[in-house]
Amino acid sequence: MLSLIGITKKFPGQMKPAAENITFEVKQGEVAALLGENGAGKTTTLRVISTMLKPDRGTCTVMGHDSVNTPGRVREAVGMLLGGETGLYDRLTARENISYFADLHGMSREVQKENIKALAGILGMEDYLDKRCGTFSRGMKQKTAFARALIHNPPVILLDEPTTGLDVSSSKTVRDFIIRCKDEGRTVLFSSHNIDEVKKLADRIIIIHGGIVRENRTREELINKYGDDLESVFISITSAGNDEEHRERGSNG
Amino acid sequence: MMKSTEKGEVMGNITVLRVVSKELKDIIRDKRSLFISLVFPMLLFPLIFGAFESSLLSPDTGRDEKIKIGINITGDNRAEKIISLHENITLLKSDDPVEMLKQREVSAAVTVNGDSEEEIIITADNSRRESVSAATAVAALFSAQAGAEEKGNESDLKNRINEGKGASLFSVSSRTLYPPEIGSSMLTLSIILPLLLMTFTSVSTTAVAADLGAGEKERQTLEPLLANPASRIQILAGKFLAVTIMGIAGVLSFTAGIVISYFINPDFLGTGPLVFTVKGAPLAVLCIQTILLSMIFGSAELALSISARSVKEAQLMFIPLLMVSMACGYSVTMITPESGAAEVVRHIPLVNIGLLIKEISLGSASGADIIATLAWSVVYTALFLAAALAFFSSEKVILRS
Description:
By secondary structure, chain A is of the alpha/beta class. Helices cover 42% and strands 23% of the residues of chain A. Chain A contains 9 helices and 10 strands. In chain A, α3 (94-104) packs across α4, α3 runs parallel beside α5 and α5 packs parallel to α6. Chain A is globular. Chain B is built from 17 helices and 5 strands. Chain B is elongated, with a radius of gyration of 28 Å.
């Protein structure tokens, strides 16, 4: 469903690649979490998958489509939500925001209408569907953004730190959304540095640090290997990564 | 049950139109941008001219260039000698100096009839400041010569008066190519049209261009937008058309402001009642050039806006562009279309467009110059759009915030 093999991306002027030899696979219907600290390479990885960034090396495929050679196909298969901020057009209504993205996906007006109605029902948006987003609460904006990401019925959902900066109820909306996507058989990959959230939602946990994948296991495998205290596991893995980096720097003079 | 995208159903040009439609909807709902782009321009001129009744025109300043005068002499050549006394005048003999004046080959036409009783007719093209100045200078020469001769030969003067021949040694009469109101209108339009159209078109697109480029980054809509199957060319084309439409709407709004000012006071520029002398094909060319100007500034500002981190930075980047556009519009007021300088500026971006607008308002634009300038306008637009697309495709620029 979603496969990354040896993805490396280095930005101009930076000493180290933001993502280095990233390899993992997420199966259909699986919820996977990219767990890492700020600057670990989570967003870069998601941007490569969403075709926003071209990798320097490696291959990324979504539903068998290569992100470099057939980016249009990948974009058709992916629904994306970036950050806690929802990125909506404030002067447009919720319906217009969703409809615009449906237009960009080449959907007919009839299909758009049906899908918007269905999503509004699922997400409980009927009351404010025709109100301008500038007047919305954060939770309402969040739901509108979800509907926008799902309007073309994508099999793969990418979420970049979806609960960052959100209050308790908005965070719950996000978590419910991820669970709903899983129930619908969609593949979800989300990034987070919130261990509790990852533990609660993810079937697969990919710990990323310094642009390198340090662990890639199912939640059960991880617990079997390290125990239930994921926080300690995370700290020990990232500390080991830091030590490794220091050693490398030392040996490089 | 939700349906999936029906592939290939609605793509291509329709996607561009849907982007245009969304952008225009978004713009129209932005009251601030709408006020700046459409309402303010309409109010500006009625306010300025209504309140101050000021004149945009300043008195002509002297020039060091040689003034070309066309002359036709049927009698003796005393008049020719008198005019030749002026070191800055070059005389060009012709059977029809007025035609030379119409063709803008000379700055004024002098026709001398008779022998000792010289009847001198000085014709000026009153749509050109330099022509009016040149004719005034020639008339002054005859006046000065007559004064000198009267002083030097008082007895001859008395004889002339006694013989009923009049005190003046010359009979100097002045004519103009056009009726006064037409000439002054052509002159006024040749000064204000390049300046106003350059300024209007560059200003009209700023608010919208800033929002459609840098605004996408600021509200974090750019990445979701670019993560769609619609190509970047389609998205950019939609944005460009929206900016151009708003630019043209802005120019129309400015024009409406001028029309309102005219109805309040036909002499709102302080140069006599204005008559819009550009009609027919020249008017069509003027409209096309104005649309192209909107496209040039729209594409340039869109490119700058896409490259900017924020709306504020985009607006900062626009300032030099606006200053350049105004400077280009103003510089054209100094250039005489037939001069050597005009041939040089024909190759300078934007100034050549200002010059063409000036020539259109004077009715002297040639077909070759029109085609060349319109073609250059298309080239400038294409270059700016290419830059915008390059910025839009650059990971570094897109992710800069």
